[in-house]
Structures are given as C-alpha cells and as structure tokens.
Amino acid sequence: MLNNVSRNAFIVGASIGLFGALTHWAAPLIGPDWYAFLHSPASVVTSARTGSWLAPSGAVVIGALMFLCAVYAFSGAGIIRRIPLLRTALVVITAICVLRGLALVPVLVLLPGRASGFDIIASLVWLLAGLSFLLGTVGSWRRLRQHRG
User: Domain-by-domain residue ranges, the chain?
Assistant: First the structure.
C-alpha cells in the first residue's frame, strides 16, 4: 500500500508537470509575447514572430515531455495503472528535475546579479518537482519493486 506522503508527493510532482505542459502548449496559441515571457531563447521568439515551425513544435514536444512526467507521477501514486519502465522513469525524472533545479546555484555564486527573478522561480519549481518525485519514489520503492514485470 502506498503511504499518503509518497502519494501526495507524486501528486505535487504531477501537478507541476501538468502546469508546465499546459504552459508550453498555450504558447503557440498566445503568441510571441508568451514565448518571450517564458524566457525562451531568442531564436524561438523570432520563430514565433515569423511563423516558422521551430517555436510551436518545440513547445508541443516540451509540453508532451512534461505531460509524460505527470503520467509517470500519477502511475507512481497508484492513480492510474502501472506503466512500463515506471521505476526507471521515476529515477530519471527525479534526477533531471533536481539537477535542473540546482543548475542555477553556480550562476548565483559565480555571477551574482545575473539571474532574473523568473530564473530563480523557475529553478525553485524544478527543484520542488524533483524533490516531490524523489520523496514519492523513495517512499514507494519497495512497492514499485514488488510489482515489476
């Protein structure tokens, strides 16, 4: 049985993933200003302004990856059925999110004043997602191991 802490941690991680997916999927509908607000690279903002496929295809792919993270979190929480490679995916997602969340630390130390408020908030959200996946995965590791195959 999954304990409430692990389940709730997975739900937090899934919610962050869903929010990220919706935020990215909205970008092609809202337009270039949304890409700029999200601090997309200049080439992506230019793509959105000129109507090329780089911006919308990138937004759709990134949104799909974030949605997939949410699906794995819901599976880890037992909300949906177990999906293939669950433990492996949860470990990989955890590592990516934690590393992305901590990636700003060297910038803050070595280049003070370079990070924007958006950069700091985004890194904190990534770190929260990673810690949520970590807590959920560690708390349910034995159960996830027992149901392999």
Answer: 4-146
